[in-house]
Amino acid sequence: MKSKTFLFASPNTAIETVFSKEGHKITHSHIDKHDAVVFCGFTPLCPMLYGQSPIKTFPSDKMDLHKDRKEWRFVRELDLKKPKIGIGRGSHLLNVYSGGDMWQYVDNHMLFQDGHEVSCAGY
Fold first, then answer.
1. pLDDT string in tens for the chain (123-residue length)
2. Which alpha helices (DSSP H) does 1-123 contain, by range?
């Protein structure tokens, strides 16, 4: 497999390590040549971005509106032809940016303590 360069919208050591172990290059500068953009993270996306008010069970202390707005601008500025990869929170961001809707809370999906384990079986 040919090595690719991935632009990470926000640094994420754990996920960057997975890409690096596969022989890929990582960059954090949109000026650098890259093959695809990766959006990831574990904090919930602010419901205001998809036209909803936060529900009572939504962990408002985990929201990061500054990060949401920064990444939203980042998506808007990207070359539309570049592949975009959404992992965790990043998939939520790309979904909402593309006009999708979200459920704010799924019972027992995540207890908002230390996140959840990600395993790459076979690697």
1. 689 999 998 889 999 999 999 999 999 987 789 999 999 987 888 888 888 888 877 666 777 888 888 888 888 888 778 899 999 889 999 999 999 988 876 666 555 555 555 555 443
2. 13-21, 65-77, 89-97
Q: Contacts by 88-94 with C-beta closer than 8 Å and gap 24+?
A: 88/40, 88/41, 88/42, 89/39, 89/40, 89/41, 89/42, 89/43, 89/44, 89/45, 90/9, 90/38, 90/39, 90/40, 90/41, 91/39, 92/44, 92/45, 93/39, 93/45, 93/68, 94/39
Task: Write the single-letter amino acid at 4.
Answer: K
Written as six digits, the tokens of 65 are 């509106």
pTM here is 0.77
Q: What share of the chain is helix, strand, coil (3-state, %, to 5)?
A: 30, 10, 60
Q: What's the rounded Cα separation, in Å, for the pair 9 and 88?
A: 13
